[in-house]
């Protein structure tokens, strides 16, 4: 609030919440798709279940903020429902390591996305900024856990992660606007 003058650019927090909620929702769908395919109780499924629980916490917080501020969700939610699940299931069908490479790629983009938002918010919206910083730390931890568990050893890792990251960028750009 401090320092803002009429005419200054202010961060578009409605658009931020919309894209963040879409991303966290997408993350829960990706993990649901992976867990539907992976053998229950394998090491990867255990890791992914733990990460999925954290995505649920992130999503719940954005849902709450959107309700409080009367921000509408993205109209693309039904698409992210299906596309997220399909991405998760497809990567898990390739291999356990490909499922982890998917997390590696997605979290790399989400980390960059949250970093840009924090830059944009600056000193504004400190409560929102601290939530984003908190979630960003979880996402980085997810990326690092996936790498430690062997993500980079997935067959076709470079191409797979480049493709998934490109998809994330498109999803982010669309969810801000639509
Ligand atoms: Fe998340
Ligand atoms: Fe995550």
Layout of helices and strands, plus pairs?
Elements: H1 13-37, H2 43-69, H3 77-94, H4 96-121, H5 126-148, H6 157-177
The site of one fe (ii) ion has 6 residues, from helix 1, helix 2 and helix 5.
Q: Number of helix segments?
A: 6
Q: Say how many strands there are.
A: 0
Listed once per kind, the bound small molecules are: fe (ii) ion
Poorly predicted runs: none
Gap between N and C termini? 27 Å
Mean pLDDT: 92
Strand content: under 5%
- Rounded to the nearest angstrom, the radius of gyration is 16 Å
Major sheet summary line: none
Which structural class best describes the helix and strand composition?
Answer: mainly alpha
Shape: elongated
Order of helices and strands: HHHHHH
Helix content: over 70%
Q: How is this structure best summarized?
A:
The chain has helices at 13-37, 43-69, 77-94, 96-121, 126-148, 157-177. The chain is mainly α and 178 residues long.
Task: Provide an overview of this structure.
By secondary structure, the chain is mostly helical. It contains 6 helices and no strands. It has helices at residues 13-37, 43-69, 77-94, 96-121, 126-148, 157-177. Helix 2 (43-69) packs antiparallel against helix 5 and helix 4 crosses helix 6 (157-177). The radius of gyration is 16 Å and the shape is elongated. The chain starts with 12 loop residues before the first helix and ends with a helix. The mean pLDDT is 92. The chain binds fe (ii) ion (2 copies). One fe (ii) ion is lined by residues 24, 27, 55, 58, 135, 139.
């Amino acid at each position: 609030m401090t320092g803002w003058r009429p005419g200054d650019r202010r961060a578009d927090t409605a658009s931020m919440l919309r894209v963040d909620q879409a991303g966290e929702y997408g993350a829960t769908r990706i993990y649901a798709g992976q867990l539907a395919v992976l053998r229950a109780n394998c090491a990867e499924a255990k890791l992914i279940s733990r990460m999925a629980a954290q995505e649920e916490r992130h999503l719940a917080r954005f849902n709450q903020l959107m309700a409080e501020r009367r921000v509408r969700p993205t109209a693309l939610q039904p698409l992210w429902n299906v596309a997220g699940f399909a991405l998760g299931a497809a990567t898990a069908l390739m291999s356990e390591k490909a499922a982890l490479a998917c997390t590696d790629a997605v979290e790399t983009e989400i980390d960059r996305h949250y970093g840009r938002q924090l830059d944009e918010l600056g000193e504004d919206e400190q409560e929102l900024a601290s939530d984003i910083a908190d979630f960003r730390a979880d996402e980085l931890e997810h990326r690092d856990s996936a790498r430690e568990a062997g993500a980079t050893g997935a067959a076709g890792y470079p191409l797979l992660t480049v493709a998934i990251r490109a998809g994330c960028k498109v999803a982010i750009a669309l969810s801000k606007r639509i």
